[in-house]
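Summary for the steering committee. The consortium agreed at its last meeting that each partner would contribute one worked example illustrating the joint modelling workflow. Our contribution is presented below. We chose a case with several input lines so that the handling of multiple components could be demonstrated. No manual editing was applied between input and output; the record is shown as generated.
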Amino acid sequence: MRRMLLSMTAAVALSLAAGPLQAAEVEVLHWWTSGGEAAALTVLKKDLEAKGVTWKDMPVAGGGGTQAMTVLRARVSSGEPPTAVQMLGFDILDWAEQGVVGDLSETAAADGWDAVVPAALQKFSKYDDKWIAAPVNVHSTNWIWANKAIFDELGLAPPTSWDELIAALDKIKGAGKIALAHGGQNWQDATIFDSVVLTTGGPDFYKKSMIDLDAEALGSDTMKQVFDRMTQLRGYVDPNFPGRDWNLASAMVIKGEAGMQIMGDWAKGEFINAGKKPGTDFLCFRFPGTQGNVTFNSDQFVMFAVGDEGRPAQIELAKAIMSPSFQSAFNKVKGSVPARTDVPVDDFDDCGKKAMADLKEAAASDRLMGSMAHGHAAPAAVKNAVYDVVTNHFNGEIKTSDEAVQQLVAAVQAAQ
Ligand code: GAL
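What follows is the complete predicted structure of the assembly.
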């Protein structure tokens, strides 16, 4: 914790010291620091450099972006916002409300963004009918990433129900491997929670509890079962899980130390970056019982109001992000799918093809839902309240599911 605080202070200090932007330069704040994430970001950097735009990198480590948002607050209050910031869902709307973001509407109109970006994403890319962000991808959280050799050795098939999942985890544990690779950080616990809520209560329950924040659903017996199941999953995690970064958990599956990881499809970026092939070295499947549903999050680059000098490079950045060829190249490496609906599917690997088909199916049947863990179900205050309860329960500080449910109802209410 102390180390994290120190490094955050250092990051803030560094960012506050940042000098004025040069012409044709973009300063981009993001949290893409893992191997797979950095590889994807390189695609964007190179693209811009080829257009004569210099990239000033401002990485703030920390999956899910909480630390990055802290650094952003410091930058904006010092009157020096970065050119563009990686951001999720409701955070985008919060910043727009503060009146500190730029306007991309002219570029969006000229390049026809309205026609190619799905409505579920536009909800977060626009404020007051103006385009304020360029969406780079669509991720989803209800995935499991598995080591194929372990599955083959133990005669396991991808589980399709909760009971099958537990049976598979038992088998892996029984074989002396770590069944579930996990990092004990609040956003990672919450990422698992997204899927457990969805599989336990189904899509209507997910919407009622996580999106509508309905007190009855939050306090229901179904929610108690969700917490019971979180406790069950906790039993398959190794003792060294506290504080572990998500990409190190992915590495445990990659190396065959662990059988599975429940994580959004940015995990695929780690497997690809390690030279692994889907279907040969690793398996991707929807969290058991959630096929047909997608809990999504979309990384968008929010453009801050930077004044006339910074504008041209900012527009170049937005245009580059929205170009179909870039969206294809980037998302193949990142593990996500394009934010545009007109990017050809053929170039993607099997997990990418599945992600694109699932997204289409879910959107057509009203089963595309914002991820609570990744800021697309409710504003940050509510998200953080959910994080607290889920994490305290996962770590045994909240002892029973009854107590967890009571605290969830109270915390969500207080945060609204
Ligand atoms: C998510 C983000 C992804 C990925 C992940 C882990 O919130 O949308 O792009 O980076 O965090 O860092």
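The mean pLDDT is 94. The longest strand covers residues 25-30.
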